[in-house]
Amino acid sequence: MTDFLDPLPWLIMLPLAWGTLAFVLGPGRGGRLAIAAIALQGLLVLQLAGQLLAGGARVHAVGGWGAPLGIDLLADGLAAVMLLLAQAVALPLAIYARGYFAAQPKGRELFWPMTGYLLAALNALFLSADLFNIYVTLELLGLAAVGLVAIAGGQAPVTAALRYLLATLLGSGAWLLGVALIYGSYGSVSLAILAPLVGADAPLAATLAAALMLAGLLLKTALFPFHFWLPPAHGGAPAPVSALLSALVIKATFYLVLRLWLELFAPLTTVAAAQLLGILGAAAILWGSALALAQTRLKMLVAYSTVAQVGYLFLLFPLATLVPPDAAESAVQGGVMQAVAHGLAKAAMFAAAGSMIVATGRDDIGRLGGVGAHLPLTLFSFGLAGVTLMGLPPSGGFSAKWLLLRAALETGQWWWVAVMIAGGLLTAAYVFKVLRRAFLPVASGDRVTRVPRTLEFSAFALALAAILLGLFGAPLLALLAVGGAA
Amino acid sequence: MSRAVAALVVLLAAGLAAALGLAMLDLPEPAVRLPARVAAKLGDSGVDHPVTAVLLNFRAYDTLLEVAVLLLALVGVLALARPHAARAAAPAHPLLQTLARLVAPLMVLVAGYLLWIGAHAPGGAFQAGAVLAAAGVLLRLAGLLPAWAQPGLLLRGGLALGLLVFVAVAVAVLGQGSLLQYPPAAAGGLILLIEAGLTLSIGLTLAGLYLAGTEVEP
Amino acid sequence: MIDTWLPVGVVLSSFLPGLFIFFLAESRIRLRTALNLIGALAKLALIGVMLWGVLNDHEYVFRHTVLPGLDLVLKADALALLFVTLSAVLWLFTTLYAIGYLEGAPHRSRFFGFFSLCVTATVGVAMAGNLFTFFVFYELLTLATYPLVVHRGTEQAMRAGHVYLGYTLGGGALLLVGTVWLYGLAGQADFVHGGSLAALPPETAGQLQVVFLLLIAGVGVKAALVPLHGWLPLAMVAPAPVSALLHAVAVVKAGAFGIVRIVYEVYGVEFAQSLDLLTPLAIAAAVTIIWGSLRALFQDDLKKRLAYSTVSQVSYIALGVALFGPLGTIGGLVHLVHQGIMKITLFFCAGNYAETLGIHKISEMDGAGRRMPWTSLAFTLGAFGMIGVPPLAGFVSKWYLGLGALEAGMPWVLAVLAASSLLNAAYFLPVLHRIWFRPAPSAWPAEHIPQRGRWETAPLLLLPPLATAAAILLVGLFAASAFSPLDWAKLIADREYLQWTP
Amino acid sequence: MSVGLLYALAGAALVAIGLAGLLLLPQLLRKILAFNILGSGAFLILVGLGQRDGGIDPVPQAMVLTGIVVAIAATALALALARQLLDLSGRMRLPEDGPDAGAADD
What we know:
Chain A has 486 residues and is mainly α. Chain A has 20 helices and 2 strands.
């Protein structure tokens, strides 16, 4: 009986099942089913987290065969944290989406099935311990994301979706090539089997595979200069989709970079490669923030903010590679904390932006006057999310920044300190660019209508979660430590 | 795009090919030998053909996700298809129509054979589904099937059946200890059940990718 | 149990009403007023309990671990209570004043919401038990005051808000780097009497000096130390109650209080002296004092003159901190309270002139004393206090600062004090002369509130400045008695010097 | 040199051709074909390296079967998107300039 209630397989099968059922139910149906099922998934993740904290990392051998013949699922602290993030973001967004598509029906027909597959892909990816299986989850994730971008139709979204699709296919192609080389070198694709083999002997093929897989993931994570596809895709999709993509989808590929870097390819990492990743991250922070500041459309601003925030994630690599273990631990904790905090805050920010666009009827920062007076909770949520992105305390973003700053100062890499501080100030500049507009009264000729309450409250719940993460980050870090990933 | 950039890209691609070639010429002996392990466990897999055993037992979880990818692609194509796409095709040449009427039942029969033989020889649900889909495309070209932008409940059920059966079997055997862990005695039957569902759904899905994607001219 | 949660209660007593007020409809005036006053009174009651406790050697500490090795600590010690009490009392007066001031104005729910958050942040700054907690509330203060500065939504207000954010977020960034660095060096940065850094190995001295510079520059932005003061005169576009709060308790005082905590309870005044950090601080403070007074001299806008006066006066606190010796400490700490009472009175009065008669410029103030005698009396007490006329509050501060300068062997500070007092007189006395001795013009610039019987203006506008003006007189007259600000400052100074013998 | 290795080397060449095509060809249909060539190259490498010592390895064969279906799905979605773009814009190619270029004015 206990086998039957194991949360691990259910976390993948449940969203697959409800996504398919939503498709069978018919166009636009399945929202309530999705919300109930995601809530259940949330409980399953909490149960899993409890199991990990009590008994350490867990392996689930699918089919009972075990690696290398079968495929293993691995739930360690890092995976559990990402699973927690995914369900925590998805539940309020599902509630938000129901309200959003009631007000803005364009694109609602097949939103739920695609979202179900998206979540199944995310959960499967976080739990997978098999390189080829990860390839399949990557494709499931990529196609779901591309489909969601194009869901509302129109020339700009379709163009963005195609660009995104080509980028993501090239990325998974590089991954598959890497898998082929690894299988050719070692005869297995299981992470657990491969790790000691790579450590013992790494032929040119393994190094080449590592480089290819890393490059493919960077393309999918939209790290500067591979960010070209992200702003139109995230900025052009319906708000709940933008939120899901910015909060979760790019985090999934970042998670893989982190796992490969810290575990499988750890013997191959060099300081130079780590510094290169850091430099790309720094460039993303500065370039993305500057472009965010230059936007006139609200959702494009938030999308470029994602380009910038992705940069922070990659600062962890120079801070965690070949440095004293204390600093490395702090850096990894900071990077993961940033992933979680940005996920919650960016979902809140896109959700709030979507409400503002519904209320004002247009996507224009210059015409936001009156939002402060008519949608105070939404604006407040946007502000709270902004606080997290700026890295002001108390918030998850601050905790992340604190951990990264500590690692930077401890390892004497002060140049990353300067980048992080400059990035925080630039973030403040573009967040306040929106806030100050929204405080102004309604411009003559414009109207601000009310939006459903569920839109306001779901965005607020996400923003509040990002803030509370800053006050209660310690349990999350305890969970992260399970299994020694950090 | 400037010539310089193009030259750079070509250089990059050639460099990649060279690096791949070099790496492949300098490979160590693999430390793990999976073929031997597959052969050793083939008897417990419920089928005789090693590729089918990998696809539907040892690495059945990959296949499960792959079926989801296929259905998802159809969902994406349907999301793009607009209602005006659902038009009856222009009637085709009578000869083609007659031929299609004759061949289609035969193709269904072939599909059934491929499904059955998959347990022992090359074949299985994907090959069978592909043949079914080809029958659908042929009927469509002959003007005997309408394009569908908005499949009805029955059709949606058929599209989803394979994945739903697969998921149901996967979790139904959780009591054995893990996902997709078939009881050894029932393995062959369960695999056939899954493959039967998959054949129908894959056939419909592959046909749907064509049928939903055509005839979009306004 | 109670001991743990009392400091939290003090923070929540304005935070919760503030949150509630945000979502009140504009028309719910009574509920909003009731929430404001209940919060203010509850805060005072909680503080009363803690004052009693601290006197009886009680410790009120709340500790919550945010990250491993990083605690959020709220602690009510003598120094915290000095500032908390000042904030809570003046908040009550300012709330009353603001209710009168904003009668009928738009966006009051938003205003009072942020107003409450602003006080929440201030008491948080006051009760912060370590540098991290201080930083948390210091940044919260920035965010809570920005909407108040731009409240009017005019182009000028927006520009002022921009400048304000630029300065304060920049300062916050410096403070953050300094704080992280210090945590890296010392593992923690709890506020303890006499500081905790003296035990670090001597080779870190150079780093500690750089960290000190970062920290002081970070808090110096809000304390308006020259050349970091540029935002303060611009922020004058805010409504009068906001200016009053900004100048007397919230923003500039948070900065000054930060300097006190950093010098005394992070570095320890004796250790800071041994690192040669105090003399540069004293010079920075002295330059600010003179520069602010000089600039004040040339302002015709009344609130701008008061703003430059604040730049100058707040640095008395920093100066007192930088004078090594208990007497200087006493002078600086007591001025923290005294300057607050005096400056809030002056801003209340400036608001009254503007709201009642439309007077914004000093050149328009001729004969205002006859039309508004009570307001003008309060203004006069505040101005005399600032100049340092005995027996008013300002005199007490300056007396101890002077003694402290002699004790620290820095006689040049006396010259600074004397010059500053002369400049204070030079920019306040002409104003008083206009109010009392010039004939009134035939018409005021814009008379909004007519004389009604004995009330020269709305009662809620008049009573708060009268109360604080009375306080200026009382804390000066009764400086020597128990529970006076001076007495409390002596108690604190007593604890900060561990080895010092005069 | 075994036959398997020869397949793998041919796969490497296909990958290079596919990569260059995907990046250089402006026409969408050709881009999609180039992606398929790239994918086929990767499949060849996977299978070829797996049996470079002459024996038959069913595991990469099964993986490639899975990969082919995934590639079909991706190709179908790409074609549907390209078709949609053709209907909406009348062109079968992506706009030339990168999105950052028009950031400030769109």
